[in-house]
Amino acid sequence: MARFLLSSLVVVALLGCQKGSSADRITLDLAPKPKEGTPLVKFNGGALTVEEVNRQLSALPPMVRMRLQTPAARKDYVEGLVRVELLAREAIRQGLQNDPEVQETVKKALAQKALQHALEKNAPQPSDDEVKAWYDSHPADYQRPESIQLQDLFLAADTQDAAKRKARAAEAEKLRSKARALKPADEQGFAALVRASSDDALTKNVGGDLRPMTLPELEARYGTEIGATAKGLQAPGDISPVVATGKGFHVLRLKARTPARVLSLDEVKMQIRNRLYSERRTAASDELMKRLKSEASYTLDEAALAQIAPAPSAPGMPTMGHPGMGGPPGAMPGGPARQPTGSPPPGPPETK
Question: Is residue 196 part of a domain?
């Protein structure tokens, strides 16, 4: 009897129709189709073939496939496929196809497939010519200014203690003399001076290394005195004069200076392709929903919307996206991920 019960599943269609219309309901055929290939598992009204299982295995993520290398693991996988088939039959036998949760699950699967189909049709991958055209029309996006990387030896001495400040200034001069006695390529020698003497807890254990920055970034983070001094360091290994700031004294060593340049097309081709593809998918998704809402005579009652008040989630609970859609607000499985444009805002300046 189950083999015939499994032959169809009737659920409410995802797209609304006029009440009573023949299109108001759809039929999903779950009956196993005759399969060609090497039989692997047989059961009343159905079978699994070696070829079908291999096809499903090939679609799994590599890490999952790695766990299916033994005969026992592969047998467990096949048993899992059979389990789904037989439990689905049992659900049909019990009439669970009419359960609201089942109907919602089917709706969401159909929604995902509809969106996937529309994107595959209307949002193809950008061609090489389209990528190059974007690159050529946005030259400013791919210009990289000169950057500079320093090592910093810092002695703390604020302006409120004149005696201490005078002593620390003299100490900084002595350390600068030691740094200048090093060979220009002796990065580790300067790092040893920093680890032995610097008061900067953030950089002391890394030999005073600062990340590569443009001169404006350097000034914004460490002050105009540091930026102006760094500008005069030209060759790797150059040691600065002692730099006095409101927080103390710095001795700088130039680690590297990278000239300004324009990123080549090859360097940014994948980045551009991903950007254009994401924008294309977003536009196709938006256009699809605009059309569907128009065809469905979609309206939203803002007054009624104001009455929706979900209970706050408990602390530590994950934030939910669209109900059942498995993603954050503004995203659908298989659809374009909406991401903010531009770079994250920089942190607050660090002036020493």
Answer: yes
Q: Which of 97, 132, 164 is the last residue of a domain?
A: 97
User: What's the pLDDT score for residue 45?
Assistant: 77
- Nearest in space to 218 (alpha carbons), one of 240, 199, 237: 240
Contacts for 294-299: CB closer than 8 Å, 24+ residues apart: 296/15, 296/16
Q: Are residues 244 and 163 in the same domain?
A: yes
Task: Say whether both 155 and 231 belong to one domain.
Answer: yes
Kindly state whether residue 242 falls inside one of the protein's structural domains.
yes
Q: Are strands 143-144 and 243-244 parallel, antiparallel or unpaired?
A: unpaired
Read off the tokens for 290: 């605009």
Q: What's the DSSP call for residue 49?
A: E
Overall number of domains in the chain: 2
CATH number at residue 209: 3.10.50.40
Q: Cα dist. 102→3, 67, 92, 116 in Å?
A: 20, 31, 11, 21
What pLDDT is recorded for position 339? 42
In-domain check, residue 56: yes
Beta bridge partners of 48: 41
Is 89 within a domain? yes
What gap in Å lies between CA 242 and CA 261, rounded to an integer?
31
Residue stretches of the chain with pLDDT short of 50: 1-23, 321-351
Domain that holds residue 41: 2-97
Q: How far apart are CA 40 and CA 162, in angstroms?
A: 88
Express each pLDDT in 130-166 by its tens digit. 999 999 999 999 999 999 999 999 999 988 999 999 9
Q: pLDDT digits over 49-75, tens only? A: 999 999 999 999 999 999 999 999 999
Give the count of beta carbons closer than 10 Å to the beta carbon of residue 334. Answer: 19
Q: How many CB atoms lie under 10 A from the CB of residue 202?
A: 12
Around Cβ 263, how many Cβ atoms within 10 Å?
13
